[in-house]
Amino acid sequence: MKRTAFPAFPALAGVLAVASGAAVAELVAALLGRPQAGTVVVVGSVLVDAAPTPVKEFAVATLGTADKPVLLGAIGVVLAVLAAGLGIAAWRNRAVGPAGAAVLGLVGTAAALTRPAAQIVDALPSLVGMLVIAGALLPLLRALRPVVTERTRRSVSLTYPKPRSLTETGDDEHDEGPGAGVDRRAFLGAAALVGAGAAAVGGIAALLGRSSGAAQVRESVRLPAAAEPAPPLPSGIDPGFVTANSDFYRVDTALTVPRVDLASWRLTIGGLVDSPVELSFADLLDRPLVERVVTLNCVSNEVGGPYIGTARWLGVPLAPLLREVGVRQGADELLARSVDGMTVGAPMAALLDGREPLLCVGMNGEPLPLEHGFPVRMLTPGLLGYVGACKWVTELEATTFDAVDAYWVERGWAPQGTIKTASRIDRPAPFAPLAGGTATVAGVAWAQGRGIRAVEVRVDDGPWQPATLLPVPSVDTWVQWRYDWAATAGSHTLAVRATDGTGAVQPEERVTPFPDGATGWHTITVSVS
Ligand SMILES: Nc1nc2c(c(=O)[nH]1)N[C@H]1C(S)=C(S)[C@@H](COP(=O)(O)O)O[C@H]1N2
Ligand SMILES: [Mo]
């Protein structure tokens, strides 16, 4: 008779051994202060960088900020399946255990060492994890070895009820099958021990990661007051004009938020410049700070999407710094590099054209949140995030667009994506049930750098009607608009379109974000009773 039972115990042994290895790897990474080098995280980061653009677009569009936990969860599932297979294979042939552990460990090591901002110590978590996998698998499988010899087993099986699988499989050479003749209690004891150990180690690693120095250091940062504070917002502005830090969208490639050691952090400005400089955080704060209200948006934002926000940014003006270092003729790109190796390439001409690019240290009255680039990020009014807003920045290199492709440009996105004029209906919510009478339709429109001249609303196939624009501090922010609609019973489709400061009307044609930003009118459907 063919054996059908799934070798559950060896599979479990594999899963537990690999879980222990992964947990220890995360702990070693946390202890090294390099949580980004944990095996699971590092493999995830390689996948993020390697993912084809459509996959990434899909992830950003459908999962939003949950893309990161979903990716890590998926890696966990794949790893568990591999681990179960490893356990079964190693149970049939002991040599497979260490070999499989070595493969997993070396894949992790290779991933860690090839990250853009890799350090040699990043090899350690995966190497230690590899030893833990091999070390945990052996005793677990040993506990699965038949406790009795062929001869004694017969007598044992007379006194103990036969395990089911033994009855099914009969006396073939594999009759030490799962649960057959093994010391279940010894195995489950060992398994429980290993499982608890892995959970404890993983928990400690997570705790260490969370309470890492960066959060405390950020708490202790006292930012100087702005030499040039932002003027109060014009009266009549809606309170939602400035996005709270906790509501501000987050888009980046970082699976673990980079934890920057403020004491050793430096910003270097070099490349095609006459006199490169290196600045500490204190050096930056010694320079006069300005405060600006600026809207930031992401090229990946779909029509009506959420990847846009407005904040009161505090920072050091970048243009004077660029003049001090003396950018050489011909350097048309400023390549910003973050501590995790991500690159953002800004057109030098835009940085020096009179707008105010900032090296931001503060956001809405607080030090930059860790997820938004603590301690320092770039922010360039009128440029999309992937062109002008490098977070966790540590290096600025004057170079040329011919010489270097920044991260997203390498992946096919427009080298100097410009902000497309766009508008969004925020109220009422799509499909909201409305009572008849006057309903306020409201939202935002943006064309940073050019400003918004008009917003119009259309109900069903009716004419475009002008909306009221609320006051704005500058052309670098979104504009709030409002339209009082005499709603009649039935189902209605509302559409919005904006006209920018140059007089250009937002195009109707729908295009997806790749490669240089979405276009199209945002519409919603509501039903009025
Ligand atoms: N270091 C780093 N900086 C980055 C990114 C990134 O992935 N890594 N993403 C960029 C993109 S695509 C956008 S839209 C903005 C988003 O900034 P936010 O997360 O603070 O909203 O950051 C930019 N700066
Ligand atoms: Mo972005």
TrEMBL record:
Domain called Oxidoreductase molybdopterin-binding: residue spans: 255-405
Record carries keyword Transcription: no
Top-level taxon of origin: Bacteria
Span list, region Disordered: 159-181
Transmembrane regions: 70-91, 98-118, 124-144, 186-208
Cleaved signal peptide residues: 1-25
Stored InterPro entries: Ig_E-set, OxRdtase_Mopterin-bd_dom, OxRdtase_Mopterin-bd_sf
Keywords noted in UniProt: Membrane, Signal, Transmembrane, Transmembrane helix
Protein's UniProt keywords contain Transmembrane: yes
Annotated protein name in UniProt: Molybdopterin-dependent oxidoreductase
